[in-house]
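One example copied in:
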Amino acid sequence: MNDAENSDCHKIIEHLANTNTPFMLFAHQFGVLRNLVLKEALAERDIDVVEQVMNLFGTMEEEFAAIYLKIFLNRLGTRNHVRLGHIRALHDQSLLSYFESHLVWMERLIEAVRLRRQDVLPELDPTRCQFGQWLNSEGLQLIRDRSHVKQIQLQHETMHHVVAEMQDLLLLPQASSPLYALLRKAEIYSLELGNEISLLNNVVIMNVYSKDALTGFLSRRFLDRVLFGQMEVAKATEMPFSVIMFDLDHFKVLNDTYGHLAGDKALVHVANLVRETLRQSDLVFRYGGEEFMLVCPSTNLLQARLLAEKLREKIAASPLQGEIPIALSASFGVSEVSPDSYQVVDSRLIEEIISTCDGHLYAAKRNGRNCVA
């Protein structure tokens, strides 16, 4: 193959990589071609020709994989930089500082692969990085479910072990294909770990932010700050979150009929039902008198609607007990916030999210109450 033909081949591969054609698909077709040529070479019974064909295809495959790897490194570097920007934009990072440290860790990995230098690699031991040290100490007190601890530890260890696999490959002359595959895995594990850290961070928020005295839920004055943080995290983890707003139906009638003490008991009763139903990482606010808002991380619209329906059914099936049981019901509005739907996080966008969810709540009321919209 002359230089012009080689250049044309490289341009074709660059086009495939830039248009997101899966490398495995290309490699499969390339392998089919290689086998056909090898078959012809073997038919000639000339071992030298066979070796030349194998060497040629080996060289070409490495060159093509190197092109895919180079383009992926550039894209990954940009994505990682953007993720870091979103996490660093948070005024109150708390546990998300560990996500930031792992994004910096990923920066070093990208640079090590780009330079093919082992000495640039980030920390390979999962127990020695910042998050690993926290997880095996303070994290054990925060995460109540031991099986969840083991799940996160395994996820974290797997990410580090993938990078350990790259260590020896960096010194090999023809390793672009396995490096490309492992680097893609490392990015996926990094996002999954970031998502887990953000969920744990929500548990911290529920524990340390000031609460409404009656229900024990977060005060409304923290809602904007939490939504701002969730939107930045959604951008960094590339995962949507959902917002659920609900209030108790005919609550004024309940107060007028049974008194405000009964109304307070109803609110406490519903608050307990919410705690029984939601995940530890879901954030719950007392938004108004009988109105509540839930911020559900890593939750799409369908999942949020199922969660709202489950809660609606539970409230409807759980009357407030007393001398006279009081039937309760609630109306729900649900909306999803996709990280692809916005570029910049600001107060206007937060108002829009709340307004959209509020609109769905009023639609549920117009539809007869005791439903999800």
Remarks:
- The chain has a mean pLDDT of 90.
- The first strand starts at residue 218 and ends at 219.
